[in-house]
């Protein structure tokens, strides 16, 4: 028999000295994220049976149609963190304005930004989904944070990660001390350490992108995709295409096996689609902590000084050498 499995809580407590605050609060914060994951996973497992598929008929602040499950997932995050005592402000892709939580003030020192349900076009077709979270520390003692205080650089995140609802539910996170993956054992109801110290290969042979947008991309981007599909044994080409429509699932594959995920800018929409604060920043922290890179094509994601809560960015993320080469094409240096 192998060693006793490490639960998420036990793992963080064991490593506590290394984690932000080191007061036990961080392990509670991650346990709460884990709880959100269990609740949403439970809804998703039965979604086809309990009339929560489809859209609400509304659109969100991004102008995208809202799925019922987007709203349910967003409410689940709010419910779990409202009385957590840990978090003083929440901002989400699905809410125009941040929510401050006076009930957790002044004790709760964390601010949480999240994409409550990632890949929502997959809800109705039983494909993978995820959630992405970004954690900042708020040190202003006098009052609750204002909206502008939530708009921070990715390099200031103290922790970040994602939940993935695939064939199993996983919680993958970093708090600046490497990237660790936990798999939910549904029978026991606990997340158990399954992937300690994930390291992303320096180069892969897989790319993930919505290539249906090819004609909308600038020339350098198109040439990069042509390059990936050309035959060259020495560099592992052609690369294989793998795209699920769920950023979390596609980045998870790249994190474990290497390669690159791209949602590039388009000629007429240079800012791309993905959101800096809820998607790009947290995944960039995870991938960089695992030894990979995340870039807009011209700049490291984590170095961007954001100006708006719902700001979008082009995203190239994955193996270090693949991202660097993609940048060379996009910048027309190759
Ligand atoms: P969300 O469901 O949170 O709006 O995110 C969807 C994102 C991402 O998960 C995925 O990679 C991408 O958008 C899919 O977009 P396309 O349908 O344009 O490929
Ligand atoms: Mn998303
Ligand atoms: Mn979403």
Q: Can you tell me the number of structural domains?
A: 2
Helix proportion range: 25-40%
The order of strands across the largest sheet is: 4-3-5-6-7-8-9-10
Please, what is the average pLDDT?
A: 94
Give a structural overview.
The protein starts with 7 loop residues before the first helix and ends with a helix. Helix 2 (25-45) packs antiparallel against helix 3 (68-82). It folds into two domains: 8-195, 2-Layer Sandwich (Fructose-1,6-Bisphosphatase, Chain A, domain 1), CATH 3.30.540.10; 206-330, D-Maltodextrin-Binding Protein, domain 2. By secondary structure, it is α+β, with helices and mostly antiparallel strands. The longest helix has 21 residues, at 25-45. It is globular. An eight-stranded mixed beta sheet has the order 4-3-5-6-7-8-9-10, with helices on both faces. A five-stranded mixed beta sheet has the order 12-11-13-17-15, sandwiched between helices. A two-stranded antiparallel sheet has the order 1-2. It has helices spanning 8-14, 25-45, 68-82, 147-150, 219-229, 247-257, 276-289, 320-330, and strands spanning 55-59, 65-67, 87-92, 99-100, 110-118, 129-137, 159-165, 169-174, 179-185, 190-195, 206-208, 240-241, 260-263, 274-275, 293-295, 312-313, 315-318. The chain contains eight helices and 17 strands. Bound molecules: 2,5-anhydro-1,6-di-O-phosphono-D-glucitol and manganese (II) ion (2 copies).
